[in-house]
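re: the backbone from monday

yeah here it is again, tokenized this time
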């Protein structure tokens, strides 16, 4: 991904769009960006780029909404993800990327469709459910960079308020992105050159997130929920198609 090349320009446009959706919904950055980056990068490098840019985007979102973060609600998620991230780093070394894409896409679509159709049940033991969602998210974060669906769907299932979801996701993803990068670095999967390439995409990231945050302030809760579910479904479909080799 040489700077100013065609592939770099494609990545720049993809980062801007993914960052915009990230600013509006609080998630979806890696879900949207990963299938596009897979066209020009190896799966391992896609994970590193997504995590690096995701780390920066979460810092930016938190600079606007840190006061609305509900630390008590996301603490069980953070603990669960801390246990799942090392497992995900081990999986990315051993598992076939295509298999992971198909599995993740299928699970994501299933959860999102059930939630969209109203087949949801609020967890009475929210801390336990939050921990499980965090663990699954941690595994997916370090293995595929797609750690969003388990925690996003859980938050919507529990009917958390829009502002709480938006800000708390940023705080949670800041933790998972950082520790996932640490785990991948310890597994010798972080290359200096790919970090430099990711850093060159920062202007598109900053402008996209900033514009998305402006739109977030004007979006109603119902539309916010529907958009989040739609993104998860579309990303799941792209993941399956990529795993089957339809998108390559």
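seq for it, each position gets an aa:
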């Amino acid at each position: 991904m040489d700077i100013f090349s065609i592939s770099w320009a494609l990545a720049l446009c993809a980062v801007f769009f993914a960052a915009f959706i990230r600013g509006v919904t609080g998630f979806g950055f890696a879900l949207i960006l990963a299938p596009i980056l897979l066209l020009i990068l190896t799966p391992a490098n896609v994970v590193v780029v997504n995590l690096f840019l995701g780390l920066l985007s979460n810092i930016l979102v938190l600079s606007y909404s840190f006061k609305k973060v509900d630390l008590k609600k996301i603490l069980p998620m953070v603990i669960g993800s801390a246990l799942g991230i090392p497992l995900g780093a081990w999986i990315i070394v051993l598992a076939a990327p295509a298999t992971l894409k198909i599995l993740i896409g299928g699970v994501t679509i299933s959860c999102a469709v059930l939630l969209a159709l109203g087949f949801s049940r609020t967890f009475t033991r929210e801390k336990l459910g939050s921990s499980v969602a965090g663990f699954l998210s941690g595994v997916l974060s370090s293995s595929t960079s797609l750690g969003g669906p388990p925690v996003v769907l859980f938050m919507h299932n529990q009917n958390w308020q829009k502002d709480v979801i938006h800000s708390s996701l940023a705080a949670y993803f800041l933790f998972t992105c950082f520790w996932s990068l640490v785990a991948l670095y310890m597994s010798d999967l972080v290359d200096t050159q790919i970090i430099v390439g990711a850093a060159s995409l920062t202007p598109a990231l900053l402008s996209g997130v900033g514009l998305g945050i402006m739109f977030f302030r004007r979006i109603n809760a119902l539309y916010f929920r529907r958009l989040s579910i739609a993104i998860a479904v579309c990303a799941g479909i792209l993941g399956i198609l990529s795993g089957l080799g339809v998108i390559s």
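The chain has a mean pLDDT of 82. DSSP finds eleven helices and no strands in the chain.
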